[in-house]
């Protein structure tokens, strides 16, 4: 008989444990639902942030390409201006040489005429 009571006590204890677990799960379902909602919100926000970062990266890449094109164009223009400046300097040097030669010849003619 003691064995039957012990078995009944064990069954009742097991039922109480199961009922306690069930009650705990029932009480915690709101917390679990809130946690699930937080995780879904975080995942959505993470996806949205990734899209924004990717878009921003694409925009920056486009800006970099545009700036690179501008800089290359300016470098080409600078080289053309430097070449034109060298040509002008050559012309100026030649004109100065011719002017000096003319001045020297004029001085020689004056000296010859006076002399």
Question: In words, what does this structure look like?
Answer:
The chain is an all-alpha fold. Helices cover about 100% and strands about 0% of the residues. It contains 1 helix and no strands. It is rod-shaped and about 160 Å long. The termini are far apart.
Topology order in helix (H) and strand (E) letters: H
- Helix proportion range: over 70%
From the alpha carbons, calculate the radius of gyration and give it in angstroms: 48 Å
| Secondary-structure-derived class | mainly alpha
User: Beta-strand percentage?
Assistant: under 5%
Q: Per the principal axes of the C-alpha atoms, what is the gross shape?
A: rod-shaped
Spans of at least 5 consecutive residues whose pLDDT stays below 50 are none
**Could you tell me the mean pLDDT?**
91
What is the makeup of the main sheet? none
What characteristics describe this protein?
mainly alpha, 0% strand, rod-shaped, 115 residues
Short structural description:
The chain has one helix at 2-114.
Outline the secondary-structure elements:
Layout: H1 2-114
């Amino acid at each position: 008989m003691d064995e039957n009571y012990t078995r009944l006590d064990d069954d009742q204890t097991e039922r109480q444990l199961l009922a306690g677990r069930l009650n705990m799960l029932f009480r915690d379902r709101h917390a679990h639902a809130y946690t699930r909602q937080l995780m879904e919100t975080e995942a959505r926000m993470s996806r949205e942030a990734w899209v924004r970062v990717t878009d921003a990266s694409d925009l920056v890449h486009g800006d970099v390409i545009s700036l690179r094109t501008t800089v290359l164009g300016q470098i080409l223009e600078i080289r053309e201006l430097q070449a034109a400046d060298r040509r002008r300097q050559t012309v100026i040097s030649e004109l100065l040489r011719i002017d000096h030669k003319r001045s020297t010849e004029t001085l020689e003619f004056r000296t010859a005429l006076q002399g």
